[in-house]
Specification:
Bound molecules: the ligand C=CC1=C(C)c2cc3[nH]c(cc4nc(cc5[nH]c(cc1n2)c(C)c5CCC(=O)O)C(CCC(=O)O)=C4C)c(C)c3C=C, fe (ii) ion
Shape: globular
Largest sheet: 5 strands, antiparallel
Oligomer: single chain
Length: 438
Amino acid sequence: MSDEKATTTEAEPPRERNEETAGGATLSLSRRRLLGTVGAAGAGGLALGGSGGALAHSLSQDRTPVTPLASVGAGRHSFHGTRQPGIVEPGQAHGHLAAFDLAPGAGRREASALLRRWSAAAARLMAGEPVEGVADTGIADDAGPSSLTVTFGFGASFFDRTGLADRRPAALEPLPEFSADELDSRRSNGDLWVQICADDGLVAFNALRVLQRETGRVARPRWQMTGFNRTPGATDRPRTARNLMGQVDGTNNPRPEDDDFDRHVFVPRGGDRRSPEWMEHGSYAVVRRIRMLLDEWDEQSLEQQERVIGRRKSDGAPLSGGDEHTPLDLEKTDARGRLLVPFNAHARVSAPETSGGATMLRRPFSYHDGFLPDGAPDAGLLFVAWQADPQKGFVPVQRKLDRGDALSRFIRHEASALFAVPGGAPEGGYVGQPLLEG
Ligand SMILES: C=CC1=C(C)c2cc3[nH]c(cc4nc(cc5[nH]c(cc1n2)c(C)c5CCC(=O)O)C(CCC(=O)O)=C4C)c(C)c3C=C
Ligand SMILES: [Fe+2]
């Protein structure tokens, strides 16, 4: 297992348990437990008579962590560890990405205190425990941890604001401009970044709200984006997610069990040429808000859509044949000599084989923020890509896509950010401590 941090999930991994739920076994167990609980409450209510209201009141006051009925609520990851959570775990159903800027007058000392408060709050939230003090308003009180992960990162501007410019990693150099960029600066970049992911929408929102309240006067929200994915257990078996264009998206992601996964995704122990030691076991997150022109996309025939990606829409199999996980055959032609995976197909242009081995771990969310004035959905992909160095992951691939990707006609890059995500915090420590106190 490449993830060195302790990741605890009760009894069985949530997806396995959800799979069972769809098959019936766990469902009937859950129903029995549910009925049992309702029955007990009902009996208790009868016996308690008029005191039922008082009991409910005292329960809501003592904030005892709940034992969730279902596997979705029970999924739990650990905040503390060598690496931060939210990178290698299976993608959750709900996500919030938020950037904050330090307030005028706030510097290294205030940032350090904020990261300490944030880390302490994140550890409790991820354990399914309420956060002490005024920050936690109880939005998630009835739910378990629901596989919550909270991840913190630093933007390039953070280092200037805190007098730490000489400790900024070379790998955090600004992303180059791409010809297709239509970036909104107000929704790009930021001093601090928080990624919140959970399988329950209230748990995810509660974490966002707590962390926002914990900023006090030290930092202000810069931008925030909300995304979603398929809910675990919604499918007959664990399946790769689909995006809002209907494509199976994530098939050729590197896997934690691959020999070179750590090298591609995480900064090695001690750092490297472009990442200082305080970044060891950390990673770099490229965040892009990419709107999909869904009305134009939906007008394309199935064959046209499949040729844009180079894979079948139904199951994600390459157009060169096989099933979803068959490697693309980039040379294979049809009887007329036409490449089966077209020369500008997204899967061909983004493949490591055609980009000098450039590799990243994609962990995106879909988003839908209502409709634009012309009636088109304001929807697309909150693209989050993880790598040990953006110059060996996102940048070379996006340079190629920018020049010749058939998908470009149907998408717009609207916002962009790059964050240095340090290694995880040990018990009693906080994320970024080696930078801020080193
Ligand atoms: C610069 C990096 C990438 C951007 C930006 C990007 C946007 C984007 N991608 C899809 C849909 C699919 N992408 C797929 C594969 C794929 N995409 C990238 C990189 C970027 N995509 C890579 C590195 C890969 C893997 C290539 C490989 O190794 O074969 C696929 C195919 C299935 C899969 O492997 O995941 C789809 C589908 C959209 C819709 C999008 C912007 C909105
Ligand atoms: Fe892609």
